[in-house]
Structures
1.
Amino acid sequence: MLKNKIIGFIGAGNMAEALINGLISSHTILPNSIMASDRDVERLAVLAEGYKIKAVNTNTGIAAASDIVILAVKPQDIAAVLTEIREEIKDKLIISIAAGVKTRTISDTLLVPVRLVRAMPNTPALVLSGATALFIGEGCTKEDEKAALKIFDAVGKTVVLKDEALMDAVTGLSGSGPAYVFVILEAMADAGVRMGLPRETASLLANQTLFGAAKMVMDVKRHPAELKDMVASPGGTTIAGLKKLEEGKVRATIMEAVEAATLRSRELSKT
Ligand SMILES: NC(=O)c1ccc[n+]([C@@H]2O[C@H](COP(=O)([O-])OP(=O)(O)OC[C@H]3O[C@@H](n4cnc5c(N)ncnc54)[C@H](OP(=O)(O)O)[C@@H]3O)[C@@H](O)[C@H]2O)c1
């Protein structure tokens, strides 16, 4: 469904680069079917040269020439971009990755009918291991949904939400989640150092353990609690460590972190 389509990025920053990299390296689409614009002309030139995509001087040029327009500017820049491209965008598929910007806000600003998808990716998309949630707006076709899935599957795993209000929970879980995990990784490495391991060794062991455990849950398709039980032998080392995690209320703390970030996202998307 992306065959013979032109994908245009407005905003050629980190997230646009992650998507462009994913789309090209997964052979989802050829570089000459991708174009991008950015107000930072040097940044645009570097991206165009690096990925052999077409650099376009204006946002209206992208809107006019693309079948699918991906809005990849910061949320505070979205309104200006929408007003600028309004005349060129009628009846196209627009995908917005701007965190916290509702489809209603976009369609109210555009004032012309478009097919709109809202996406919430996360930073591991930069290494093609992202987690993205999509909300498929009214008026989108099944083909639009498939196209959006294909684009974000190129940088990781994608889910489709039926209710746009759940985007705040996505922000709290997978959007903010990498930061929680970075803190856990740092703490595990520090703990290893405290117990006498060299820093580099401790970091490698911590990182690979988290990566391996997550991969195991996904590959063997068993409940994490079941896998946890399998490694906690009676009277052993793991159950001694698990007791400390329980004493530190690790589960409640993580649940509260996701809740706090979700509530903050709700608050921010109102403004
Ligand atoms: N990074 C993430 O992990 C992540 C995760 C989920 C969602 N998102 C969303 O993805 C979007 C992009 O994030 P990012 O991290 O890729 O941002 P970024 O690196 O700052 O990229 C945005 C680019 O758009 C350019 N720009 C701003 N206004 C423009 C305009 N009017 N016309 C053309 N270009 C314009 C910026 O130029 P200047 O530098 O000159 O401003 C910048 O080069 C954001 O809305 C963010 O909420 C990001």
2.
Amino acid sequence: MPSPIKDIRFTLHDVLNFSDHYAALGLNHQVDADLINMVLDEASRFAQAELEPINAAGDQGCVLADGVVTTPPGFKEAYRKYISTGWAGLCGEAEYGGQALPEAFGFMLEEICCTANMAWTMYPGLSRGCIAALSEHGSAEQKSRFLPRLLTGEWTGTMCLTEPHAGSDVGLARTQASLQADGTYRIAGTKIFISAGEHDMADNIVHLVLARTPDAPGGTRGISMFVVPKINLDGTRNAVKCGNIEEKMGIHGNSTCELLFEDAVGYLVGEENNGMRYMFTMMNAARLAVGLQGVSVAQAAYNRASEYARERLQMRALSGPKAPDKVADPIIWHPDVRRLLLTQRAIIEGGRTLVYYVAQLVERTSHAPDEDSRENAQLQLDFLTPIAKALLTELGFESANLAVQTFGGHGFIREAGVEQYVRDLRITLLYEGTTGIQALDLVGRKMLGNQGAGLQAFGDFMLAVADEAEVEFPDMADKLRGLHEDWARISMEIGGRAMQDPEEVGAASVDYLFYSGYVVLAVFWTKIALAGRQHEHADYGASKVDIARFYFARVLPRTRAHELAMASGAGNLMQVGELAFTA
Ligand SMILES: Cc1cc2nc3c(=O)[nH]c(=O)nc-3n(C[C@H](O)[C@H](O)[C@H](O)COP(=O)(O)OP(=O)(O)OC[C@H]3O[C@@H](n4cnc5c(N)ncnc54)[C@H](O)[C@@H]3O)c2cc1C
């Protein structure tokens, strides 16, 4: 299956102009368009040769026997090749053996690998989160002990938050940490659903564990973070073991483990009771990575659907035969099949542009030369992170479902190779905070919590895009300006209603997230159309303009339904009698 290299290049070079971006950050001596292309090509070669061929086999799942988890055939070998070519350290700090490339390079690698094989890509993906948290919050000693091996990939990482009774509400976690005379802690408790918690691909696994010390305050204010290696620094086995692996709906190739910490040796990261803050370093990066999973797997499903729609012959086109020499026309001639395919394209390419725009924001927050630009990037980043996570997983899932629909009944049959994408993608709407939790974060903290500053920062960018489009696409420019006003008005209305009744926040939240998400994608589809107009290959560029027009005409109007739902208020949810909820 082709990797979406051409479209990724278009997004990076033509739509988002990464060369100018790096020049503005003063990084152009280190990274340029050639390096981007080289990384894309090499990553694609690796993914096509090593990951894609083992994706279907990965569906048979991991096996736990005597505490040892065996990954599906080929997973271990592919991981060995991955680390032998240095991919694990692509964005890591040079001091610890990393190649210190900017964060967007990690997104590129992740996208290409995930399109080929999501379950496999989660193993190195978890390590990247662990590396980010230790780089930012670990002590010098912890960094020098753990980072070098994580960056070679000899060791992998995990994030251990969830407990049986503590899911979205991490503050309910009960895992205990007690300080020992030698300054280490003993960690005791059970974590569940830990991705890559145990496997046979690496020599050691570095668990980042949330736990509470005996006198810690309740809730998230009493959570601390600990590094708990599977193998102790002296080479002995630490007291952490895998009690069970879950039977799941998808991503069978990735082990989802119950981990039992039985007075395991742990090392405090940073200060006690600050664990949630540190974990957010990992979670924010992970949320963007999960949004990218939505786009990547949707792309894999689309690749199959578009190929199939050209080959499958069923019925004649409404306007007369398109393939008169055949028994029927390819289904791609039917308007509804085009709707299916173009909706997928609109989601994938708009979503990809959002992800790489966010990657630029991440890079601006740390590399922009002036304080104002860093602050502006941080505001936009905070505001867009829950949108990117929730919207792109929800729409990515919709997109993969539409790919199955394109296949008709054959899509439901395993042999067609498309239903696995739907099952694999389903988890992305749940982990790293469900859509409901992202929406609460967006409305409560990122919009109302900072008096709309994030919305305003992105709104300024939106108006700049409208100005850019004024001459070539005046209709799109007008639409963006109208949406800019409506978005601000709707946000104010929710704020006003929330002052009367706090339930209004939760009642509006998911619709607000979708509304915002469709508006955000309209901004990026305008940018895509502009880049399409300039493209050296006129046909390729024109196809981007066509999809942009499709997005504005057939997807963006969904905002209206979300607006009406928000305006209806909390009463139709909270004043509903008990009986309406009985089974
Ligand atoms: C395959 C898989 C891999 C995972 N990997 C990891 C991992 O590596 N590390 C880790 O720590 N965890 C991991 N998880 C756990 C995952 O992050 C949680 O399952 C998820 O955060 C939701 O928690 P929960 O399942 O307990 O659901 P709950 O929190 O019980 O939520 C149930 C429902 O209630 C809603 N809800 C809850 N509170 C609110 C609220 N205040 N407002 C509105 N709606 C609300 C939720 O949106 C959801 O719809 C994984 C889970 C799975 C299935």
